[in-house]
Specification:
65% of the residues lie in helices and 5% in strands. The strands form four sheets. It has a two-stranded antiparallel sheet with strand order 1-2. Strands 3-4 form a two-stranded parallel sheet. Strands 5-8 form a two-stranded antiparallel ribbon. Helix 8 runs antiparallel to helix 11, helix 8 runs parallel beside helix 20 and helix 16 crosses helix 17.
């Protein structure tokens, strides 16, 4: 029986790989592929089953090969990966060679890169379903918190300055449409990965008769990648996947960035659970929102990975280095994103809202300025630009005198209007009070997507339904993949027993 060294040496190559090659290129390639160990086992099983069924591999050797592959499937810890044996495929091949003479049939009609590419499709499919689950969970947590906080008044911020009165539930809910779009992107991306490259040969099809659709069926794929060379060397799918990951992380990070600001001691109307904070080792009073900072770091790292993945695809097709690190970086980017988004779900679910602090910020700021300008335009029958000019001048006067907006009187409005525009303005005290009242301002925003309670209720219902539809799809897709794996292993056991 052959040894591992014979697999690489003795035909075209006479010398074993040098120590430098093993320590650098081989070790890096193997490390990148470690996460595909389970999936490449499934690819080997499907390949062998299909070739036994097609009569390419004789029944006797086929049964022996499948028996060894199943032993590795059942006990993956038996395989100790060693960069001296090359990549993941050749490590597995060497393990098989040491145990059965039938191991030589494993490579019939396929390149090692085909096996690993098939494993990549399986691994990305599984991880994208995990990312979809994390996104659904995060979206549902935000929908629940938004519904609970729909009447919680708080200032909205632009440029980190108090802008208008809003509901904090409305603020949280703003992240959910993006999450739903992320789920749409995940589904579209997964549909392209859910096509099998198995049986494509090296890149031009195989002289060995292979039923590619049977292989796809055994692996639970929705179909095959039709063009053999495209099947082997797709560059756009890793780039698209990295973009999907970046979009999903940036979407949740935008809310995380807002919460970093809202949870600061200077603002302080939200507080993270202690379970998602970290204490300072030198400053005893600090409660640092570490979980939110981690989400930012995860988004930054994903952006870097996206650039690297795109760069690796920008070369002539058929280049091994276009995949050398993508085998690891693409699945890892998806897994990292899913973990960060799951952390966000826990943070959002455990977030505390301090209503008195939010109310204090509303009272201290002139967030009713827009409502006052719109009230002036409606009641005084002046154009909005003139009303804007009057309220802008009033805001400057308040800031210069240190007065709060709550002290504004109809006389103040009339005097400022006369100075700023020369227009005689009379504003009813009740209308002024309504314009400056945060609760009234929020209730007035009842149109689709607005901050009024009824508008939030409508959005909560709509978004919850869309998240439920995505979860139903995810669960069904995951079960189809699991059922295919169970069926594949069962067929392999039947063939191995003959």
């Amino acid at each position: 029986m052959a040894t591992a060294d014979v697999l690489e040496v003795g035909a075209r190559l006479l010398d074993a790989p040098g120590d430098e090659m093993v320590a650098s290129a081989f070790a890096a390639e193997l490390d990148a592929q470690r996460g595909l160990t389970h999936e490449i086992g499934l690819a080997d099983l499907a390949h062998s089953v299909a070739l036994v069924e097609g009569g390419v591999i004789p029944r006797g050797p086929g049964a022996a090969l499948l028996e060894a592959l199943l032993a590795l499937h059942d006990h993956p810890e038996l395989l100790v990966l060693d960069p001296r044996r090359g990549d993941l495929y050749t490590n597995r091949e060497a393990w098989l060679v040491e145990r059965t003479d039938a191991a030589g049939w494993l490579g019939a009609g396929r390149a090692r890169r085909e096996a690993t590419t098939t494993a990549l499709h399986l691994g990305v499919r599984r991880r994208l379903l995990g990312l979809a689950g994390a996104l659904v969970g995060c979206g549902r947590a935000l929908v629940a918190r938004a519904a609970a906080l729909r009447d919680a008044l708080a200032p909205d911020y632009t440029y980190l300055q108090a802008a208008q009165p809003t509901s904090f539930g409305h603020t949280l809910l703003a992240a959910v449409p993006g999450i739903v779009r992320d789920l749409d992107r995940v589904r579209g991306c997964l549909a392209r990965w859910d096509l099998s490259p198995a049986g494509c040969g090296s890149a031009n099809g195989s002289r060995v008769p292979q039923d590619r659709r049977r292989m796809a069926e055994l692996l639970g794929f929705a179909g095959i990648v039709e063009h053999a060379r495209d099947a082997m060397w797709q560059a756009d799918l890793p780039i698209e996947t990295a973009a999907v990951v970046v979009a999903a992380l940036v979407n949740v990070d935008r809310l995380a960035e807002d919460l970093l600001f809202y949870s600061s001691a200077e603002v302080g109307f939200v507080e993270l659970s202690d379970a998602h904070a970290r204490a300072s080792k030198i400053m005893p009073h600090k409660k640092n929102p570490y979980a939110l900072a981690y989400v930012r770091a995860a988004a930054n790292r994903a952006i870097g990975a996206q650039a690297a993945i795109a760069a690796s695809g920008r070369m002539p097709s058929g280049q091994v280095d276009s995949r050398l690190f993508a085998y690891g970086s693409v699945p890892q980017a998806i897994s990292d994103a899913a973990a960060a988004i799951e952390l966000c779900r826990a943070v959002f679910a455990g977030l505390r809202f301090h209503a008195p602090r939010a109310a204090a910020h509303l009272a201290a700021s002139f967030t009713g300025a827009t409502d006052l300008a719109e009230t002036l335009a409606a009641t005084a029958r002046i154009d909005f630009r003139s009303a804007h000019r009057i309220v802008g001048a009033l805001a400057r006067e308040l800031a210069e005198s240190g007065r709060a907006a709550s002290t504004i009187t109809p006389a103040d409005v009339a005097a400022t209007a006369l100075r700023a525009t020369g227009l005689p303005i009379e504003l009813d005290a009740a209308a002024l009070a309504r314009a400056l009242d945060p609760a009234s301002a929020v209730r007035a925003r009842g149109g689709p997507g607005g901050a009024a309670p009824e508008a939030i209720d409508a959005l909560v219902d709509e978004l919850a339904a869309r998240l439920a539809a995505h979860e139903a799809w995810r669960a069904a897709a995951a079960e189809r993949a699991a059922a295919a794996e169970r069926a594949l292993v069962a067929v392999a056991r039947q063939q191995a027993a003959r």
